[in-house]
Amino acid sequence: MLTKERITAVQHSSNVCADIEGFDFDDYDANDIAEIRRLWLQYGVLRFKKTNISDAQQVKFSRNFGEFVIHPKQLQEGGHPTQPEILVISNAMKDGKPSGAMGNSEATWHTDTWFYEKPPAGAILRAVQVPPSGGDTYFLSTYIAYETLPEAMRKQVDGRQIFFQNVYDKTGKLRLGKTEPKSKDFREWNGIAHPLVRVHGETGRKALYLGGTSEGAWIVGMTLEESNDLIAKLWDHTTGSDHVFVQKWDQGDIMMWDNRCTMHRRDSFDPNTIRIMHRTTTSGERPI
């Protein structure tokens, strides 16, 4: 068996991600998993380069980090034929229909399923097939976003709640099971309020929590104009950071991120090429 002394982490210059070396997906024990968890909490994003593992191995590994969460897209076009824990992200077509979720379009900055009462703690994404170029994934730290806020802005956000409507997705489509709201004021729609600054349940560090879009978000207690202005500034500050890690995928690469303290986005890619990714998602707690 491996021991944690054989597992090393090499931090990227972005201060957002670390490469894991010395972990064997075919041969690991509880001590090895404890070390991976420690490094995951330390760095927020981990990368395992060019692994050669199966779907079943991915599910087994993921199970060590919490109960599985079924992503909303798994209930639509992203279900896996034999592994219900896996979300298939793919632009490939089968029998004239999408064989996975998300297609080839860009995915803008977001924290996964921010509109849930208990957003997932983490995700593990594995490259099954990658295009020659495009489809890169970007990560940033919301710890750093909070810690680098100007003092005046930090005072504005501390102790505040942010409301997210959960009726429409980012493309304007009704979410599964939702109905058209009667009111034009999204603050009266179904949604969830979370701390604008959340305290990580395991590390105790504070992270800025902006969800996945400024549309349909409102800082509770502010006028809509004040809220929109502050949210825009917070987004500019967060996504304008120099601390961004860019993952240019190779087949077999695995990215593992802590959804409680990171955000990510994806570039678009040529629709005439194929990109297939398999993702597992682990449960989290209600933000505090």
UniProtKB/TrEMBL annotation:
What cellular component GO annotations does this protein have?
cytoplasm
A Gene Ontology molecular function term for this protein is: metal ion binding
Domain of life, per UniProt, equals Bacteria
- Which Pfam families does UniProt cross-reference here? TauD
Q: Which residues form the TauD/TfdA-like domain?
A: 17-281
Q: Gene3D superfamilies per the record? A: Clavaminate synthase-like (3.60.130.10)
Q: Which UniProt keywords apply?
A: Dioxygenase, Iron, Metal-binding, Oxidoreductase
User: Is Oxidoreductase one of the keywords UniProt gives this record?
Assistant: yes
Which GO BP terms, alphabetically?
Answer: sulfur compound metabolic process
What family does the entry list?
Answer: Belongs to the TfdA dioxygenase family.
Its name, as the record gives it, is: TauD/TfdA family dioxygenase
Q: Which organism is it from?
A: Mesorhizobium zhangyense
